[in-house]
Amino acid sequence: MASLGQITLPRAPSSEIGLLRRRFERPIIRTRIGVSGRIASVLTNAGEQAVSVKASVSQKVIEEEAKVIVGTYARAPVVLSSGKGCKLFDPEGKEYLDCASGIAVNALGHGDPDWLRAVTDQAGVLAHVSNVYYTIPQIELAKRLVASSFADRVFFCNSGTEANEAAIKFSRKFQRFTHPDDKEVATGFIAFTNSFHGRTLGALALTSKEQYRTPFEPIMPGVTFLEYGNIQAATDLIRSSKIAAVFVEPIQGEGGIYSATKEFLQSLRSACDAAGSLLVFDEVQCGLGRTGLMWAYEAFGVTPDIMTVAKPLAGGLPIGAVLLTEKVAETIKYGDHGSTFAGNPLVCSAAIAVIDKVSKPSFLSSVSNKGQYFRDLLVKKLGGNSHVKEVRGEGLIIGVELDVPANSLVDACRDSGLLILTAGKGNVVRIVPPLVISEEEIERAVEIMFQNLTALD
């Protein structure tokens, strides 16, 4: 541990912090860092003569990013260079409590020893050979996914949006395969308000926010958006027999942490069965332990034909997966789909480490309990504020709906050392911490939010 002023920063000899400092700073003798995380002064050996204020490493990184990176992200003005557990640090040593977890990705937090061992051990043996050949970690991961879910088969890809693209293709192939003599088979899709399924052209066509779609039109045709939860509208359209598949998130993340009802999902299942349409659950954000259950669909008593998963699966490494029933999988043939990097030994070994931890009943129970504690504390501390309309969610996917934009609170909390996100129409605070967050860290997070409520005024 290296102590810098009042900030304690974990650091390895070859850490990224050291690399950043060597890259962006001239050698200095000694620094003093205040709680703001910025270098206040540089002293001589004797410690007597102060020199001019030195720009932070973070500021230099931000300036360099603007010169070389395509501007697709409105980034928060923070450079993150190391992390441990639920804590993150910038190059100046400022500590942040991570309740964003890489947008619901880092299920085990940062630097989990079992995850780290799986990655480093596999990297020393074999990282990638493509899907031209068999590899053991891929098969072992697929077996775990099948054993823990409704699925019979798995297709691997590299992200959530790729998983949804594959699900689109599989749905259309299923319809053509099962209706070989029909001149016109079902090719349409149903998606719902507040949905988010990705940013590639197919997945984007299923994403409800018009501002995401409009600049890239024409995109994939044939998608109808219905009100999330509207049983009658969905049932009527599915009965038209022109719907290849219905895409739905059991719990919407980007859309604002809205949960489906059991009646809604059961009605979709019944209507799809009657019409021959497929039911696709997008659990990219809400799946794999996030709700306190292994898969979110378990709470509803409804199983899909296809399920897409991604974010937390490999604990920070890029992976996506499509879980399918045998009736769908048997319609997919050689050459119908593929991916060069998908399911390589390195990322699959990381995912095995994640699943082996998350799938334990005691771990899932802890997520459920901590989620309830988090929500109860939010209601207790924040519920009296006039801007707070509702606290909702399941497990550790939590939304705090406001009657004003949430950006001011998110920004103030970040300045105070707490990382949280927005969702919905920008008026929902999204809280998706690592699943290993402690009760003490939950209490700290809520206290920081409480102390910064004045930002909403």
Number of β-strand runs = 21
Morphology: globular
**Tally the helices: what do you get?**
15
Q: Note the main sheet.
A: 7 strands, mixed
Give the class from helix and strand content and strand pairing. alpha/beta
- Overall pLDDT level: 90
Strand order of the largest sheet: 8-16-15-14-11-9-10
Question: What percent strand?
Answer: 15-25%
- Radius of gyration from the alpha-carbon trace, in angstroms: 24 Å
Instruction: Enumerate the spans where pLDDT stays under 50 for 5 or more consecutive residues.
Output: 1-17, 25-54
Q: In which range does the helix fraction lie? A: 25-40%
From the N-terminal CA to the C-terminal CA, the straight-line distance is 40 Å
In short:
With 457 residues, the protein is of the alpha/beta class.
Protein model, in words:
With 457 residues, the chain is of the alpha/beta class. The protein contains 15 helices and 21 strands. The chain has helices at residues 16-24, 57-68, 101-104, 113-123, 136-147, 160-178, 201-205, 210-213, 231-238, 262-275, 326-329, 345-358, 361-382, 407-415, 439-451; strands spanning 2-4, 7-9, 31-33, 39-42, 82-84, 87-89, 95-98, 153-157, 188-192, 223-226, 243-248, 251-252, 258-259, 278-282, 306-309, 320-324, 388-394, 397-402, 418-419, 421-423, 428-431. It has a seven-stranded mixed beta sheet, with helices on both faces. Strands 5-6-7-19 form a four-stranded mixed beta sheet. Strands 17-18-21-20 form a four-stranded antiparallel beta sheet, with helices on one face. Strand 5 and strand 6 (87-89) form a beta hairpin. Helix 5 (136-147) packs parallel to helix 12 (345-358). The longest helix is centred in the C-terminal third of the chain and has 22 residues, at 361-382. It is globular and about 65 Å long.
